[in-house]
Amino acid sequence: MTLKLLYFARLRERLGTIGETLKLPDSAQDVAGLLKLLRKRGGNWESELTGRPVLVAVNQNMVSPQHLLQAGDEVALFPPVTGG
Amino acid sequence: MATIRVQHEDFDAGHEIAALRADNPAIGAIACFVGLVRDVNEGDSITGMTLEHYPGMNENALAAIAEEAAQRWHIYTSLIIHRVGLMRPTDQIVLVAVASSHRGDAFPACEFIMDYLKQRAPFWKQENTPHGQRWVNARCADAFAEQRWNTPPSGNIVAQETA
Questions:
Q1: I want to staple A19 with a disulfide (CB 3.0 to 4.6 A). Which of A6, B8, B79, B89 is the partner?
Q2: pLDDT category, B158, cuts 50, 70, 90?
Q3: Closest-CA distance of chain B to residue A13, Å
Q4: The pLDDT value given to residue B1
């Protein structure tokens, strides 16, 4: 399935991109699977998505690692929020 | 019933509060909170701050927070204005105002909205310091502030475990 990925704040800076279109292999079905796939890119992808808190929103709602992804989902990855 | 605005422009709290209470003589109390840019954070002087946001999601998140407050307390209406972009010390960042019959509903609802906003609304602060720019880290105290309202935690931290 194809997903639209968005990155914000520190993640956007460290990963060097505001987002991408990603084709998810059948082996990855949920948010945890997506993160595992991204970490395999190594470098900042591995360091930023490992051992640091990351929040994930799917179609603009916060979700858990077990959330199942659907084709066409907008998946946003970002650090804990600091507004207010 | 809640008014939500995410904007670059500054706001006039007096004007906003006047608009909130206009035409409803049942309103007996308005509690409000204004968040400002400070000139010091974690021991460093701050010369400016840039607020980044997730357009679309933050309007929805703020509306959901205001709706939850309306379910918990007897309030007539509420207002959340959150600015984005570059701001300087003494600038206003956020305004929350809640209108109700009595202060017993307005005060806690206003505080609840701020506590939830700090945990759930997708805004991120980047500070300018003498050592360069840095992202502001989320504070544990904010998580505790949200949790005291006894609700399930917001969004789950999903990448804590090692790969």
A1: A6
A2: low
A3: 10
A4: 78
Q: Any alpha helices (H) in chain B, and if so which ranges? A: 13-21, 57-72, 103-120, 140-147
Among B16-25, B26-35, B105-114, B143-152, the range scoring the smallest mean pLDDT is B143-152
- Residue B57: its chain A contacts at CB < 8 A? 57, 60, 76
Is the CB of B117 less than 8 angstroms away from the CB of A83? yes
Query: For A6, which residue in chain B has the nearest alpha carbon?
Result: B54
Q: What is the pLDDT of residues A55-68, one digit of tens each?
A: 999 999 999 999 99
Indicate the range of B4-8, B70-74, B155-159 predicted with least confidence.
Answer: B155-159
Contacts made by residues B8-16, CB under 8 angstroms, sequence distance 24+: B8/B83, B8/B84, B8/B85, B9/B83, B10/B83, B10/B91, B10/B92, B11/B81, B11/B83, B11/B92, B11/B95, B13/B92, B13/B95, B13/B97, B16/B79, B16/B81, B16/B95, B16/B97
Q: Quote the pLDDT of residue B157.
A: 52
Q: What are phi and psi of A50, to 5 degrees?
A: -125, 125
Chain A contact present for B138, CB below 8 A: yes
Residue partners of B68: CB distance under 8 A and separation at least 6: B112, B116
CB of B140 less than 8 A from some CB of A: no
Average pLDDT over residues B49-54: 98
